[in-house]
Write a structure and sequence with these properties.
The complex is a heterodimer. Helices cover 45% and strands 12% of the residues of chain A. By secondary structure, chain A is of the alpha/beta class. Chain A folds into two domains: 153 residues, 3-Layer(aba) Sandwich (Rossmann fold); 115 residues, 3-Layer(aba) Sandwich (Rossmann fold). Chain A has a four-stranded parallel sheet. In chain A, strands 7-6-8-9 form a four-stranded parallel sheet, with helices on both faces. In chain A, helix 4 crosses helix 5, helix 7 runs parallel beside helix 11 and helix 9 packs across helix 10. Chain B has a domain of 319 residues: Beta Barrel (Porin), CATH 2.40.160.10. Classes of the chains: A alpha/beta, B alpha+beta.
Chain lengths: 308, 469
């Protein structure tokens, strides 16, 4: 056997022990969960507590629609007991990751698959026939529900169901964790509602409809988007109309996301006299938005400040 | 007097209950009023709540005790390997032998929806070059020089066959132009089945497929990074590339990083290097691929491939290749800023040469000889994408001809504009130089030096494409 062959065999045996044997001790205690988005990671950690090991495929500052299918993501999914997806075709790229992961536990329809959108009252579901002339529309409705704190009880229920399927012996602990999380969420939701009560009915411009559920929760109206249609960058005509609309409707804030065209948003804000506000599109999307509650808190505070 | 007493008694008997009833009614009215006020308040509260609910997305109440059923399916999963071992231990041999529980049917689509996806890709190319190149059929798209032509119109169907397998069928139409006659060729580009639930981290792909040899061979022309394939791939595998019928099995190593090993067995129909076309002497392929993600510093993929089979003269041909691809994507960007990739191929062939005819009388004086040929070729390209819609790239390739002496090199700067993910335009200039004109001299023309302007328009109808690395 050549030196190279010996090195390869050693690496495979060592890797096999590390992945299959050495990991058994940890695996016996913890359920390995992979989520597509960081919001779902945060909520899974809240329910799973110390009994789960959670990793997210996307980072908080990445566009959840356009994630590149990297083999490193397949490695994460390959070792997962559970996969939590956003659903509503908002993270459809995950199917390509799953296909490359060779993990039957998380294939579509398998018990290791959790669709967090189960039971969500979906907004912006197209009522008419859709095609690409409308842009990159979501035929199943707006998939960006996870940062609406009012949705967290339902999402954590879906996650809880999946965790119980994987580790029924920890059911009581998962339920206790979830209740503890909701006991923090409920007063926070009341506080956020009070903070945004004075600006209820205010109108804002967004870059993409990623905050639709959050805004609707607190009665803030999404008046227009910077992108002309979903996924279609703004044309000069659209920008001119948007500036006019902001002036006419006295819109105070333009909400941006990290991957958006910040220069364009700044130009529109300057010309129309509106404030450009960066909101966290997901947990970890901006500094100070590290947990689920702190992310919502960050967004609510930023929104209230901008709309004063 | 007695009568008066009786009257008083009668009146008392009559009006006393009435007075008491009047008092009761007053109390009842008071109670009703209070009740009405309470109801009014309740109505007001409900109206307020209704207004609030109408302005907000509704939230489903969280059940006090979650069920163990699959959400929304009402199906309970029992006996599954993963469920029995929540920690994700490798399944035992008994687990593998036991028939697995059926999966819940996926897709929450409504009535009338198809149970598979379909898409159409249209790829149109325009080629402009010198007259002598046109005459010699020596351009990048031989026989279609100075033409606008539909290169690939592809209809694809793909989806889950059942919980255990996925299938993909691609039918292609393309223009063929020969001797001034335009013809449309319709054919099966790919049709394969992938078994997804095999044990030990393996998958098997069965059918007609673009073999996973190297970086670009698995990609269809419209998915490639440039308008055309690098010359080395066209010279070594033909214009269609290495498309074969057979089976590929992949195994993912249980390592903390990505390492995939692939083995394939095919007919060997490729008529440039192989072509024997029988599994009695099959084309065998292999590929090792790894990937390292440096997060903020980008990611790199490294691969090595091999294909070995029998040619039409029943001699062995073997081609090996190594490839690398690096992408840098700034934090938060939804597209890469910088991409660089390259591939090197080496062919080792056993061939039987024709007998040499020294005096030119048409009768060879020397017997045919068995010889070996070793040929090399490589390409590299770099791309910069400062804006999501615009991409600038440059490719260099160099290759020897596998069937004769000589080599060629080419440079190609290109520009791509992508208004959306479903529409793309590319403009490229390609300069090719060959050290010999042999093989590029049809109709008395010459194509030793070729300058071409290439324009490509590509559209996608259908599902949102994933972005592979």
């Amino acid at each position: 056997m050549s030196a190279l062959a010996r090195v390869i065999v050693f690496a495979l045996v060592a890797g096999g022990l590390a992945g299959g044997g050495g990991g058994l001790a940890a695996a016996a205690d913890k359920v390995r969960v992979v989520t597509t988005l960081t919001d779902l990671r945060a909520l899974t950690e809240a329910v799973g507590g110390d009994l789960v090991e959670v990793d997210s495929l996307a980072r908080g500052n990445q566009n959840p629609h356009d994630l590149e299918v990297r083999p490193s993501l397949m490695v994460k999914v390959r070792r997962a007991d559970l996969l939590v997806i956003n659903g509503l075709e908002g993270d459809a790229w995950v199917e390509a990751v799953v296909r490359g992961a060779s993990n039957p536990r998380v294939l579509p329809g398998a018990p290791g698959r959790i669709d967090a959108s189960e039971g969500v009252m979906v907004l912006e579901v197209p009522k008419t026939r859709v095609d690409r002339s409308m842009g990159d529309v979501h035929p199943l409705g707006n998939p960006h529900y996870s940062l609406d704190p009012g949705m967290a009880p339902l999402i954590t229920t879906n996650i809880l169901n999946g965790l119980v399927r994987a580790a029924p012996q920890h059911r009581a602990a998962f339920e206790r964790n979830r209740r503890a999380f909701l006991s923090l969420l409920e007063p926070a939701l009341a506080r956020w509602t009070a903070v945004l009560a004075p600006v209820r009915g205010a109108r804002v411009v967004v870059e993409h409809g990623i905050f639709t559920y959050l805004l609707a929760r607190f009665g803030v109206v999404q008046a227009a988007t910077i992108e002309e249609r979903p996924g279609i960058p703004a044309t000069p005509t659209h920008v001119a109309k948007l500036i006019q609309q902001i002036k006419e409707e006295r819109i105070k804030a333009i909400l941006t996301v990290p991957w958006g065209d910040r220069k364009l948003a700044a130009r529109i804000g300057d010309e129309a006299g509106a404030r450009v506000v960066a909101l966290a599109p997901a947990v970890g999307g901006l500094k100070g938005a590290d947990t689920y509650l702190s992310t919502v808190d960050y967004n609510v505070t930023a929104l209230a400040t901008a709309l004063k | 007097m007695r009568a008066l007493v009786c009257l008083v008694a009668l009146l008392s008997a009559t009006f006393a209950p009435a007075a008491a009833g009047a008092q009761d009614k007053g109390a009842q009215i008071e109670a009703l009023r209070k009740e009405l006020e309470t109801l009014k308040k309740a109505m007001g509260t409900l109206a307020e709540r209704l207004k609030t609910l109408e302005a907000q997305p509704a939230t489903a109440a969280a059940p006090a005790s979650p069920a163990t059923d699959a959400p929304g399916t009402g199906q309970t999963f029992v006996g599954n390997v993963a469920q029995a071992r929540p920690g994700g231990d490798p399944p035992s041999l008994m687990d593998l032998a036991r028939p697995r529980e059926p999966f819940a049917l996926y897709e929450r689509r409504g009535a009338g929806q198809l149970l598979f996806d379909m898409g159409v890709v249209g790829d149109f190319v325009f080629n402009l070059t010198q007259r002598n190149v046109d005459k010699a059929n020596g351009g990048t798209f031989a026989g279609r020089e100075n033409r606008f032509f539909p290169r690939e119109i592809e209809l694809s169907f793909f989806g889950q066959v059942d919980p255990y397998a996925r299938a993909e069928v691609r039918i292609e139409a393309a223009e063929e132009f020969e001797d001034g006659a335009r013809d449309l060729h319709l054919g099966l580009a790919e049709a394969h089945l992938t078994l997804l639930t095999l044990p030990f981290n393996t998958q098997a792909k069965i059918g007609l497929m673009r073999t996973r040899f190297g970086l670009l061979n698995p990609l269809h022309l419209h998915d490639g990074p440039q308008v055309d394939r690098p010359n080395v791939l066209t010279r070594f595998f033909g214009e269609e590339g290495l498309v074969e019928a057979g089976t590929e099995v992949t195994w993912a190593a249980p390592l903390p990083f990505f390492l995939e090993l692939l083995g394939g067995i095919f007919n060997g129909d490729n008529d440039v290097l192989f072509g024997f076309g029988k599994v009695s002497e099959p084309l065998l392929t292999g590929r090792l691929r790894t990937f390292f993600d440096f997060e903020d510093w980008g990611a790199i993929q490294l691969g090595a491939s091999v294909a070995s089979g029998t040619n039409t003269d029943r001699h062995r041909s073997t081609v090996v290749g190594v490839d690398a691809k690096y992408k840098y994507r700034p934090d938060g960007w939804s597209h890469p800023l910088f991409t660089v990739a390259g591939e090197w191929l080496h062919v080792h062939q056993h061939v039987t040469t024709e007998g040499a005819d020294d005096d030119g009388d048409g009768i060879p004086e020397h017997a045919p000889e068995n010889r070996t040929r070793n040929k090399n070729g490589w390409y590299t390209y770099a791309e910069v994408q400062p804006w999501k819609r615009w991409l600038f790239g440059f490719r260099y390739d160099w290759t020897e001809f596998p069937d004769r002496r000589g080599h060629e090199w080419a440079v190609q700067p290109y520009l791509a504009f992508m208004p959306t993910e479903f529409l793309r335009f590319r403009l490229a200039y390609k300069h090719t130089e060959r050290n010999k004109r042999d093989g590029f001299g049809d109709n008395g023309g010459s194509a030793r030096i070729v300058d071409e302007l290439l324009l490509q328009a590509t559209f996608i109808l259908g599902a949102h494409p994933a972005h592979p690395f």
